[in-house]
Amino acid sequence: MKLAFRLMLSAAFFLCLPIIDAAAEELAGLVKSVEGQATLLRGLETEAVVPGMEIKMGDILKTGDEGAVGLIFSDDTVIAMGPRTELAVEDYLFEPVEGKLSFIAKILRGTISYLSGQIAKLSPESVKLVTPAATIGVRGTHVLIKVD
Amino acid sequence: MVNIHLRRCLVILCCGCLMTACSPKNVVVLVPDPDGSVGRITVANAAGSVEIDAANESTAIRDAKTAPSPPAEMEKKDIDQLFSEALAIQPQPPVHFILYFEKDSTQLRPSSAAMLTDILSTIQARQSEHISVVGHSDTLGDKTYNLSLSMRRAAAVKQRLVQKGIDEAHIDITSHGEENPLVKTADNVSNPKNRRVEVVIR
Does B87 touch chain A (CB under 8 A)? Predict the structure, then answer.
């Protein structure tokens, strides 16, 4: 009896999954391309960056001396990182229906190519690219940034 | 002009090597979008801000207490030298397709069925392994029913792509039901624009 109830509960849980998926959507982006050495820091965990890997808000990516990484975010923003680069995904929110939009990336060092996505189109003031010396506000744009 | 500007960058870099506590130095360049258009950026810190709205214009920022330098054009070869590795790995922006369906059905409307060829050729051209298929419905009828209907629509599109040789593992399907309408309507409204599946090729 108890078992049957548990089974029912887990079945109900699985049936609900698509709803939860659609609502939560905490995935910010994905790693599209990787060259050389690159690592991802999530909380206290560090792992090697590989193509197809998911990127979440709060992640910090670092490339090695010959490393490079290409990212695509769920709002179509594209970010490419050159070697010896460190990038933090500070804030990411893409819920266009509710008007909840935010894209804040911190470039701590290295070289970045940023190609704006839908967040910049829908709400330019919600996009900030932060470097140690300045903050870059963006309107539908391709920007290159170098931080020494 | 640009050369002088660049040489100054180099000098500052050398200073950084000599003095241990040298502030970071940033360079920002606005370049054309893939479609050729040029956007606009504002580079600002506590000391000031500059607006850039022309292709290949750049600004240099010595530190957070020094205003960004006035915009100056950066030569193509200098841009390549500084950013070639990042630009070389930059993924192409995703492509979106919207497919429409008959009412309460997983049957594609004829014009959308024809679009499948474009979808397949785009997947093949960029050898994409990241294809999202997201199903949507209009608000007519029950919410739960619509969620399952839009899931069946997404599954039907996936099935068509798999039949044409796309690897099943590369296609991710989700259902948003009536929650993400293209056209906002009241509940219980039939709307052909909301009966759709969005295919995103990354």
Answer: yes
